[in-house]
Amino acid sequence: MRVLSAFKGRQVDSLEKARIGSPDRLSSPRLRTMRLEPISRNTAKPAAQAALDRYNLRDYELIKRSVRFLTQSWREQPSLDELAGHIGLSPAHCQRLFKRWCGLSPKEFMGAIAVDHARQLLQNSASVLDASLQSGLSGSGRLHDLFISHEAMTPGDYKRRGAGLEMAYGYHATPFGEALAMTTKRGLAGLAFVEGEKGGAREEALADMMRRWPACRFVEAPERTAAYVMQLFGTVAGTGSAQRVRLVLIGTDFELRVWETLLKIPIGRAVSYGDIARHLGCATASRAVGSAVGRNPISFVVPCHRVMRADGGLGGYHWGITRKRAIIGWEAGKLFERS
After folding, report:
1. Residues carrying an active site annotation
2. What is the pLDDT of residue 6?
């Protein structure tokens, strides 16, 4: 286990700079002086988790390359042979890869990430949030085979920037690449994807999350975060079971309102930034909504990937537009499996 905590008055040495990034990149003064204390840690993984890691990381690397290729050449409607050749697989292996990863054929997946499909997701988007409120999803939402409940930190807790709060973190494989999970005693507080469009590393992802709660005490304890990742993603490889996952939302009052609204968007649907603004009673605040969506600390679970531009464009995504396309295609496969 490793502890990261704010330590006033001590400069970061060169080794720590390499680990957490240059202090100049960290917005909070409290994060410019970090102390790294090594503590014994058990790195052994259960067999089920090790199998899931290999499954996820290998498959997602191929899927990511496929998504980029399909996005760049969608006008040419590439064949299965062309796609398979691009990622270095035989056509039969490429077909099995997509079926295993999301339940769709490559051709079906290409349709799921197309602009026309995005526009279909937005159909009647203005009524999606109202319908979910009427059906009782404001208190807890259903995500795939999981029940999600959440609580929000008080404004006082947020103003203290995490002071007095211990947050465990660990790196884990998921169907969408390696992720950094962060938990408190009250639930999952953060889920960030490590490798972004610009090739960011673990330290960059950690520094990004630490900036959000600069006064927190951070403890590297993957044994404490692994259970949440298995609950969220284990069912993809048949190793998990449906359970209630508890989230802890830490943000400003406006950010909390936006994130709680995101939890109301059902799988297979999407809303625009303007839809969220109108739902919150501030129709002209689309830009502020976009900023709050971008600061969502719990990727995938709080589904900011289901927010798009009103014209059907995907908009932005903090963890990379390729990954956003991949998640949308993956969810389309989950819906197909249910039908």
Report:
1. 304
2. 43
